Amino acid sequence: MDQAHTKHIVLGITGGIAAYKAAELARLLIKQGFTVQVAMTEAATHFITPATMQALTGHPVLTNQWQDDKGMAHIQSSRVANAIVIAPATADFIAKLANGLADDLLSTLCLARNCPLLVAPAMNQQMWANAATQRNVQQLIADGVTLLGPVSGVQACGEEGMGRMLEAGQLAQDIAAAFQPKILTGRKVLITAGPTYEAIDAVRGITNRSSGKMGYAIAQAARELGAKVTLVSGPTALAHPHGAQVVDVTSAAEMFEAVKQRVSDADIFIAVAAVADYRVAQASEQKIKKCDAKLTLELIPNPDILAYVAALPDAPFCVGFAAESENLREYAEQKRRTKKLPLLAANLAQHAIGADDNELILFDDTGEHRLPRTDKLTLARALLLHAAMLYRKGKSK
Ligand SMILES: Cc1cc2nc3c(=O)[nH]c(=O)nc-3n(C[C@H](O)[C@H](O)[C@H](O)COP(=O)(O)O)c2cc1C
Prior knowledge:
The protein has about 400 residues and is of the alpha/beta class. It is about 35% helix and about 25% strand. The protein folds into two domains: about 170 residues, 3-Layer(aba) Sandwich (Rossmann fold), CATH 3.40.50.1950; about 210 residues, CoaB-like (Rossmann fold, 3-Layer(aba) Sandwich).
């Protein structure tokens, strides 16, 4: 499967309490560029109305195989689908899939498909643990169906345990990932993101306007390609990317420590964080009191994390980022040469920092490659494909 845009998804909704999350999922899929056709079981219509799903997707919802004016909705709808996603998938529907039953429109559509099937189970923890459900799930996996979740947590019935459906945002990320080539499977990618915060005293500090959005998008894009991702993140307001191991740090020194501890395991290191170049020599443990005299802070340089990693004897494939406010090309090439990086992504700080969109120029041994202005996830995917191609080329030498 390839890029999200122009791809068509059949979103199957079955009769579980988590059906309310399917409305948000449909909205997020459409936002990502998919077209969505909803099909619901009869039980699902007791939890969320077809009218809601029709309004969100702009297409009439398929519910009944006997009231179809085209006659063969189960065949037509599955032929145009690039993937079928069942979210939520009840224990009952999983049992039907595992046994090839086709006694309603949605199960018939799944049986008649010639595209990938992704299933997001949602049920009470006892229903999930039941030997019959577990047997059915194993059968689905053996049949090549992709399971998305479930996860453990508090359930609608008040019990706690395994069986909660993934959140809509997490499912949307997993569904997008299913359309990406798995060219980094088995590879470990270590990423730094966000700003750092260097304390001046107990309440004040030096930081910068980095939002972490680019680094988080790169973490998501690397995971989509099949990599195992560790994200060392400075303080940001962003939700942790689904499926990545996240290490939260505050200062440059903490970020350096976190990277040093993990770098020997990494195949690829991508330094996206806007690490403060300087920290206060002697941060005060107490709040500095205001007075009329001048206050002078002594700043000392922070360690250069990327330079350290790139100079390691057994260094991973290193990707640097350069955010400059002027002379972008000159400073970027200089940074790439000094640190001996195989790949550097350069952006103008005034275009990039905090924004949802960005544009990049990639510098490598063959020259420069422009990635035109677009959202940061699309850019991250293009950057990762380029990095993976260079990494694999380097390995095959
Ligand atoms: C209030 C209520 C909530 C339910 N929640 C779930 C659920 O979360 N997961 C599940 O597997 N079944 C749940 N069920 C049971 C299913 O609705 C039932 O098995 C139904 O036959 C499923 O039909 P379907 O698989 O065709 O959608 C629930 C039933 C009720 C009445």
